[in-house]
Amino acid sequence: MTELTHSNFLEDPSTGELDLEARASLRRVAGLSTELADITEVEYRQLRLERVVLVGVWTEGTAAQSEASLAELALLAETAGSEVLEGLVQRRDKPDPATYIGSGKVRELSDVVIATGADTVICDGELSPGQLRQLEAKLKVKVIDRTALILDIFAQHARSKEGKAQVELAQLQYLIPRLRGWGESLSRQAGGRAGGANGGVGLRGPGETKLETDRRRINKRVAKLRREIAAMDTIRVTKRGRRVANEVPSVAIVGYTNAGKSSLLNAITGAGVLVENALFATLDPTTRRSATPDGRTYTLTDTVGFVRHLPHQLVDAFRSTLDEAADADLLLHVVDGSDPAPEEQVNAVREVLAEINERRSEPLPPELIVINKADAADELSLVRLRHLLPDAVVVSARTGAGVAELVETVAERLPRAEVTVEALVPYTRGELVARVHDDGEVLAEEHLPEGTRLCARVRPDLASALESYVVDGSRA
């Protein structure tokens, strides 16, 4: 019998470690596929990707940017649980309206699919319903686009009730224009007496197609999900309203997916949330309380990661979550310093933030760039980033290097209390002294026989509570 040592009980696993173990415990076993043979049923089941071939259209930018986009698509496919076999890129002025890549490239792609034995083709772009139908008819395998792939990853990684509802809403919005009938013939439901005279106006004839029935049911489900998300948003607004009423500053962590946002949250607050070297590893926002070196309390929120060409359905579905970042007092924009093109990550994140801010009248909060993964980046890249982003803070969430400097910089950027008071608070009012320490910034403190003499920066409401004990002429 194995003897358990005392060290087994010294540390309990964090929530993130438990989540990571649960995620790793369920993996696809190669060779045990139960995929449906009829490719027309692709929209009616969850995507289970296996052996895939990638294809992209290079319309603008450099060849290196096109290859980087396809490499990112490969990482997305692997995150979804598939094996990438091959990747093709075609140079065109614009995607072909019928088949996305043109008839000649379709024949070449078909040969690659047959030679590799792939059962799925993933396109690096959003396909129209017509392009999707044409490609599946010509290639005889499953065809999905970048949007469907990202939605599938979100569906796998969403854990909270709100996250699952938001992902389902995005999936249904994507599905509605891509609904198709089963086979060549569409079944119909008769209206009235199916063409008889007693059916009534508008009810005579063949009736309603199965496609229309599905679309109506999906629209009803979308309306229900919007109501549920609005109700959850009310709870979020209420919680945030309490923090605003107490004037607790808030900091939101934003950035490209897999830039190390959750790792940074753990390094600063010890939150213990899930950390994994994968795209979109964490979706549900996490808020933790922290404190500046001078004792001021603030909240730190980890938000969903961004990516190039983030689907508009996701931006709309996660708008309530992303608004949390837009309403913060400070944005920590995390950049992966080891990425080959970090400036493109910065531009992609700022584009999404600008899209969120279009419906708002207030400007976005101030931004603090944080270059993460300094331990994995080469020195030349870090020098170049320091030149491009001179006000950025360089850290390594894994080793802890630079985190203390980041905390001090956050403390400097957070809004401070507006009123400076000097008060002599009697010992019978110790709760006021405690409030000053919790909610204000103590500049000087002295214990006298009459009470505690304080010089502090506080909020206007706390300054009013101290009004009776303010030393004459000391309030500014």
UniProtKB/TrEMBL annotation:
Residues 249-418 form the Hflx-type G domain. Residues 190-212 are annotated as: Disordered. InterPro entries: G_HFLX_dom, GTP-bd, GTP-bd_M, GTPase_HflX, GTPase_HflX_N, GTPase_HflX_N_sf, P-loop_NTPase. Mg(2+) binds at residues 262, 282. GTP binds at residues 255-262, 280-284, 302-305, 372-375, 396-398. It comes from the Bacteria. Residues 192-205 have a biased composition (Gly residues). Its cofactor is Mg(2+). One of its GO terms (molecular function) is metal ion binding. One of its GO terms (cellular component) is cytoplasm. Pfam families: GTP-bdg_M, GTP-bdg_N, MMR_HSR1. Belongs to the TRAFAC class OBG-HflX-like GTPase superfamily. HflX GTPase family. Monomer. Associates with the 50S ribosomal subunit. This is GTPase HflX. It comes from Amycolatopsis acidiphila. The gene is hflX.
